[in-house]
Amino acid sequence: MSAMGTGNNDKELNFELNIMPVLDILSVLICFLLLTAVWIQIGTIDTRQAIGDNSVAGAKNPPSLWITVNTQGAVQLSLRDLPGAKTHEEQIRSAGRGVNWAVLEQKLQALKAKWPDLKTGVVRPEAQASYGDVIRIMDKLKQFEFEGVGLSPLG
Amino acid sequence: MKTSSFVNVEKRRSPLSEVQNLKPGMKKGKSKAATLAMSLPLTSLIDAFSIIVIYLLIGTQNSGMESSIPAKMNLPLAEHSVGLDKETPVLSIQKGVYRLNDQVVPVKALTEKLSELKSKSQEKSLELLVQADQEMKYEDLDPILRASSQSGFEKMKFAVVPAR
């Protein structure tokens, strides 16, 4: 087609590149990529669960932080199995409608500074607590390098 | 042999036909035909298309596994999430309805179905991906925790949207 359109002089060596098919290919490629592209990336927050009834009587548990969340967003921090059989409890009042995230962050930072071996965190929400808040608390625990983050069933 | 055609009487040089062919050196052929005023720069169009293709190839690639999110589900945001690295069974909760790999499962049958899934799988540490709306109440998640614990799922993953 290209040679026919412009080939006035038959003696000239004419190698013309028709760019219309290139445009077609690029258009098809763009459509294909737009349709198959992944626009929303999904991430995950990982937890480890206790399987069945695998609690071992007499086993020494590592120091752990238990976070209780109630429906109004009030949070209770309880430290268990600390060295010397100490216990520690703190309350964080809710900020209007939900959890007071700034205070929770400060408290977690302080606890982590005081007990660097604290690497286990268990979130224990009430039945009507928001799933979004629970995930955000687990996210905060990951932020402060809690390696074992778990969820406690109700009851 | 000279041929004459009535088509050539009103012959105009089309800029489109000129530009749509890349010539060595882009030398324009001598022609006495009049040039049309408008021209379509196809070469720059190819440049633009190429840039779009490269952007789409690089910008939208996903290194991990793909997972579809149910419609009208707002996953919670998380800053310290990890990517999905392998295919896992998906358990979604929407308005109290539990779906295991897109199949509706009654709450009472959750343990049985998960145990079945676990026994069929060849993987020792099979993980379970939970997809739920951020507005959901925790009591809707509780049956999953119990069922997964009883059926031997040690690791659970909660789907989130990574916050930037």
How does this model look, in words?
In chain A, 32% of the residues lie in helices and 23% in strands. By secondary structure, chain A is α/β, with parallel strands linked by helices. A five-stranded mixed beta sheet of chain A has the order 5-4-3-6-7, with helices on one face. In chain A, strand 4 and strand 5 form a beta hairpin. Chain B has a six-stranded mixed beta sheet, with helices on one face. With 164 residues, chain B is an alpha/beta fold. The termini of chain B are far apart. At the A-B interface, helix 1, strand 1, helix 2, strand 2 and helix 4 of A face strand 1, helix 2, strand 2, strand 3 and strand 7 of B. Strand 2 of chain A pairs antiparallel with strand 8 of chain B.
Topology:
The complex is a heterodimer of chains A (155) and B (164).
Chain A: H1 2-6, E1 17-18, H2 20-36, E2 43-48, E3 64-69, E4 75-80, E5 88-92, H3 101-114, E6 120-125, H4 131-143, E7 148-151
Parallel strand pairs in A: 3-6, 6-7
Antiparallel strand pairs in A: 3-4, 4-5
Chain B: H1 15-19, E1 21-22, H2 42-59, E2 77-78, E3 82-83, E4 90-94, E5 97-100, E6 103-105, H3 110-120, E7 127-132, H4 138-151, E8 155-162
Parallel strand pairs in B: 2-8, 4-7, 7-8
Antiparallel strand pairs in B: 4-5, 5-6
